[in-house]
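Reply to dn_fold:

You asked what the input looked like. This is it:
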Amino acid sequence: QVQLVESGGGLVQAGGSLRLSCAASGRSISINAMGWFRQAPGKEREREFVAAITRSGSGTYYADSAKGRFTISRDNAKNTVYLQMNSLKPEDTAVYYCAAAGTSGSLVRSSTYPYWGQGTQVTVSS
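and this is what came back:
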């Protein structure tokens, strides 16, 4: 089993920045790619892909809404993945979830990831 714990969420004004962290424990050696998804208010049945990164860190993928503003990175020595979010907008308000995948698959699909954190709230005020 793999456990994921997110941190770094909070309240920020539009145009501000936040850095989310996700620490993995347990059988973290089995983790391949890691990703960030978000769930906006009123969209409880939909988890939107934000960004993903391969095990080596050489491959990164972003949703169009995140390109140019968000950066995903990972520190395998610390079993931690980060999401640096800049130029935040009110529409970025959501619960952000970290996810880990043990096998290959489409990194933009939530079904690829069997392991999930509990989520961290990001609120961007206008």
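The first strand starts at residue 2 and ends at 7.
Hope that clears it up.
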